[in-house]
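ok so i was messing around last nite and threw this chain in just to see what happens. nothing serious, just curious
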Amino acid sequence: MLYFYSMYIDSHTHLYVQEFADDRAEVIARAQAAGVSQFLLPAIDSETTQAMHQLKRDYPNSIHLMMGLHPTHVGPNVEKELAHVKSQLETDAFVAVGEIGIDLYWDKTTLSQQQQAFRIQIQWAKEKNLPIVIHCREAFDEIFEILEEEKAPSLRGVFHCFTGNLEQAHRAIGFGMKLGIGGVVTFKNGKIDQFLDQIDLKHIVLETDAPYLAPIPYRGKRNESAYLLEVAKRVAEIYGKKIEEIAEITTHNSKSIFGI
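result:
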């Protein structure tokens, strides 16, 4: 199939997590053989930092790291975790602050802490002139409220795993965000396929969120970066374009936003 010869960037993949412990090298090799040449790794919390850095050392030309505190890991030790993020941002090179945001699916009781952590990390991103990568689950209003407070010419980034509606898509873009499109676009109940072609491709980046959210025909299995091609194939169908064009445009978009 021709699209195997295009070049892709997986703009959001957790290659360092335990789910890949037994075959991480093989997973990366499969992705590279499929044309996925660059991998952007979002942070979760301090416990995963060492694994991320090790993977960067193992694949210095392919792996790019973000730093941030994931909203589902905002808890009693939030101040310590944020101090870790700040220390990392001051001592190492990262391509983004992420993934950060608000998640009200798992725990609504930490909303105020999540809001404050999100706000602080956006401010650090602006200080460092870095893009942000936003995690949003059942929290569009709360996310947009803070983006409105923090909006600035330098504010930019990616709305990771975008699952909103057309109006929310345009609002996210208005804050300087690209839309991260992954496996959900292949789901029959994913809904974003119904309006995605109304969004200019210049606002789209491709991602897997591996090992989560595997696209059809792998839904329910462990996701991996090689499956990004299934996402690209579906996006090409939605836009009525050749998959090589989708690869070229989305790769350019990722390089532009992350400076790689």
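not much to say yet. Residues 185 and 244 are 18 Å apart (CA to CA).
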